[in-house]
Amino acid sequence: MPIEDVETLVVGGGISGLACAAHLKRNGRTVRLVERDDHLGGVIRTLSDSGYQIETGPNSLLVRAGEPLLETLSLMGLDKKVQRAGTTGKKRYILKNGRPVALPMSLSEGLTSPFLSLAGKLRLLKEPFISRIEPAQSQDETVADFVRRRLGDEFLEALIDPFVKGVFASDPRILSMADTFPRLVDLEERYGSLVKGGLALARKNKGPAPPLSREILSFEGGMEALPRALAEELGSDAGSNAEVIGCSRSDWGFKTALLFEDETYYIRSRHLVLAISAPQAAELLEPLAPDAATLLAGIPYAPVAVVYLGYPRERIAHPLDGFGLLVPSRERRKILGILFSSSLFPGRAPEGHALLTVFAGGMNQPRLATSFDEELLPLVTGEVESILKTSGRPSYVRIQRWGGAIPQTTPGHGQKVVSIQSALPPGLHLAGSYLAGVSVSQSFTSGVRAAEKILTTPKD
Ligand SMILES: Cc1cc2nc3c(=O)[nH]c(=O)nc-3n(C[C@H](O)[C@H](O)[C@H](O)COP(=O)(O)OP(=O)(O)OC[C@H]3O[C@@H](n4cnc5c(N)ncnc54)[C@H](O)[C@@H]3O)c2cc1C
Asked: Cβ distance 52 to 396 under 8 Å?
């Protein structure tokens, strides 16, 4: 029954745990990170298979100015390995009446694009004249309520619904506006209108954006380059194949039991960071903070199936000249969206071939995410054939399933997170995609924030 003492133990080797542990180590603290899987990176993993480069989780990331990940990229030398999607990453298609329609990329394109009807376009022009509602009322608004109120039904159904499906595998009718798109709620509160607020911000941020911000990025060797760089920094302080099976209080702080090669080990730590999903954290927290555990267990997650399809390029009629295609609910399809993976970055498919990444399931069709391959594959390839005009069967197929992929920021989520944090005993910290936002860079931020709390706690 070996026992080890360390200042901070981080449970979970996804991007949020790695970011937390690396930030502590850079600041001279002793830290140990344990991960139950055989690799570090959590859902971020890049695989080479039959000449294709497959991303099991995120295909790309976007970093905003001021986010900690932006500074860390150069610190880790990853800025030199960055691959940019460039203008291809900006072009997106939306399915309309069964056909892919390019989203307008400028105001003038918007006026002539068939993406909205004349009535829908005129409704958008009314936005600056619609008065704001009281902040207290907006706290409970769903994304659908907010968009319908400010921008109209057609904009909701044609653009926001497919966007929410593509990013959150969800439905605008069940997500909270304030917790999912806080920047837009803030624009309404401060400027009374999204259009007025957007113009004011554009004037304010007129100067050049910091390098690499606001761009769709990946790395040479794929997304896994990011967790790999963090894992290299941590060296032997990060270990895989070690599952935490229980946590309790000790006189010094916490005593954590973990299983490694069929043997139970114990780590005593002053700080304990749970950088795992909300339901996983709920299980470990039950004996330590039962109120926080109950709230964590109530955070829903969308299940997703990811289907990778490879085709000889000439067997896809669509030009694949963009990021991908979003699918509104009103099109009644069996997929959430398609990424044109090999158009975005080089080296994702063998010469003369194209790689498509198709998402299915989500909150509205959860059963599809867990259906057998024999059911899922014909549905997905059938949809792709009818939308992108592929001919013949794909020459490459792979399926990845995530039971609890994307946390759902339903109404009351922000308040729930505040209550969870205040129900934690001193020294216990949380990190993960349900705290500061689901993206890679927001998950990274949640890890850095947990580390900052530890750094600002006075030492004994
Ligand atoms: C299919 C998919 C596509 C996505 N696409 C994008 C995208 O294009 N862009 C973007 O920005 N974001 C995307 N995201 C979101 C983003 O990738 C995730 O939100 C983020 O990577 C989550 O990181 P995490 O560290 O919080 O969690 P995870 O990656 O889930 O890591 C948690 C880790 O904890 C480990 N763990 C759990 N329990 C224990 C235990 N008891 N003991 C030890 N270890 C444990 C798990 O094995 C796991 O490795 C996508 C997510 C998915 C699933």
From this structure: yes
Q: Closest Cα to atom 22, ligand 1: which residue?
A: 433
Range 116-204 classified under CATH 1.10.3110.10: yes
For residues 204 and 266, what is the distance between their CA atoms, to the nearest angstrom?
53
**CA–CA separation, 410 and 299 (whole Å):** 8
pLDDT score, position 429: 98
Q: Is 197 in the pocket of ligand 1 (CB under 6 A)?
A: no
Residue 254 CA, ligand 1 centroid: distance in Å: 25
Give tens-digit pLDDT for 6-54: 999 999 999 999 999 999 999 999 999 999 999 999 999 999 999 999 9
Fold of 3-44+58-83+218-299+409-455: FAD/NAD(P)-binding domain (3.50.50)
Q: So where are the chain's domains?
A: 3-44+58-83+218-299+409-455, 116-204, 301-407
Tell me whether strands 3-11 and 263-274 are parallel, antiparallel or unpaired.
parallel
DSSP code of residue 63:
B
Residue nearest to atom 31 of ligand 1 (CA): 14
Is the Cβ atom of 16 under 6 angstroms away from ligand 1? yes
Instruction: List, for residues 266-290, the tens digit of each pLDDT value.
Output: 999 999 999 999 999 999 999 999 9
CATH match of 301-407 with 3.20.20.10:
no
- Kindly state if the Cβ of 440 falls inside 6 Å of ligand 1: yes
Q: What is the pLDDT of residues 426-458, one digit of tens each?
A: 999 999 999 989 999 999 999 999 999 999 998
